[in-house]
Amino acid sequence: MTARAAVIGAGSWGTALANLLADKGTETVVWSYEQDVADDINQAHANRKYLDGIELHPSLRATPDMAAALRGADLVVSVSPSHVVRQVMAQAAEHLEPGALVVSASKGIENESLKTMDGVLADVLPPSASRTACFLSGPSFAREVGLRYPTAVTMASDDAEAAVRAQAAFQTPYFRVYTSADVRGVELGGSVKNVIAIAAGVVEGLGYGFNTQAALITRGLAEIMRLGTALGADPRTLAGLAGIGDLILTSMGGLSRNRTVGVELGKGRSLDEILGGMVMVAEGVRTARSTRDLARRTGVEMPIVDAVYALLFEGLSARDAIEQLMMREPKPEQG
Questions:
Q1: CA distances from 172 to 31, 73, 148, 151 (A)
Q2: pLDDT at residue number 169
Q3: pLDDT by residue (tens digit) across 5-41?
């Protein structure tokens, strides 16, 4: 049983998970890069910057001091934006308690290394911690978890006992956790779906309807499965919560930051303008670059990912991106 948890990252998802743990009776501390966010959690039992409107458990505490956050923690949750996980968790690694279980809840593919978070953590954590690391993913908006809406997720690990331990740490009557041995599939599904969600948002921003949305999401799943299979993922994982489940949520849900970026691009706004008005990170923007590079390195065809990359970084217009996808050479659906 978890005695003390440290959640590394006080964004919306980190705060929601920390609140879930505190609500279970686990002594929980959140590490926050921002002093004002830590103060808000400690004094107002709220995180009005990243999870406004959700009342936090009164026992939940926050600190900007990494060593203090990790002191005595037997469960450590890594939930920073993916592009800073390497830096943040390298700092955290210096203060890990022996035997602490690390659970990653960040989703993304690092631009430089093309590694998902399991690879990043393997680089920076002690070998004993990286061998038992677990990876949480699935269709789970932070706000809805904060509101205690029924939610189901997947917890993957190469160590079956660690996965069961992490499952027990997070399982509640409203947060159901399934275990998996397919870290590769869970990590890729949770990362690449953010890129497809941008494309789904573009479709809506252009004013197209449900036919177009359904086609885009279905073909996006085919791309995720092609890449995942090429890299050793189990296709069944990508047909489950961490694959199609998360893809549907992020592509169609109104709380999705990645879908919102796509909607605004479809309406003609520039990427800089859109990102300048966002407080939280839309992981799909950075992940579009790394997914495209990973697909090319692996020799996997991903036309939707290519179109999103061109839209974000090469000046392709939203309407031209959709037209190019529709006008590709006809081919069988399978194969």
A1: 23, 20, 10, 10
A2: 98
A3: 999 999 999 999 999 999 999 999 999 999 999 999 9
Active-site residue identified among 24, 49, 193, 267: 193
User: What secondary structure does DSSP assign to 91-143, as a single string?
Assistant: HHHTTPPTTPEEEE----B-TTT--BHHHHHHHHS-HHHHHT-EEEESS--HH
Domain match, 52 and 126 both: yes
Structure tokens at 223: 């791309």
Residues 11 and 151 in one domain: yes
Q: Are residues 147 and 268 in the same domain?
A: no
Q: What b/e string do you get for 233-247 counting C-beta neighbours within 10 Å, with b at 16 or more?
A: bbeebbebbbbbbbb
Q: Which of 181, 207, 223 is the last residue of a domain?
A: 181
* Burial 64-86, CB ≥16 within 10 A → b, else e: bebeebbeebbbbbbbbbbbebb
The residues facing 134 across adjacent strands are 103, 157
The residue among 148, 181, 214 that closes a domain is: 181
Given a cut of 70, whether residue 335 has pLDDT beyond it is: no
Going by DSSP bridges, is the β-strand pair 61-63/75-78 parallel, antiparallel, or unpaired?
Answer: unpaired
Match 């670059």 to its residue by tokens.
289
Burial call 121-160: b when 16+ CB within 10 Å, e when fewer? beebbeeebbebbbbbbbbbbbebbbeeeebebbbbbbbe
Assigned domain for 333 exists: no
Q: What pLDDT was estimated at residue 331?
A: 72
Q: Which domain holds residue 222?
A: 190-326
Q: What is the CATH number of the domain that holds 299?
A: 1.10.1040.10
Element (H, E) at 62: strand 61-63
Q: What is the pLDDT of residues 178-231, one digit of tens each?
A: 999 999 999 999 999 999 999 999 999 999 999 999 999 999 999 999 999 999
Cα dihedral across residues 33, 125, 120, 7: positive or negative: negative
Catalytic: 49? no
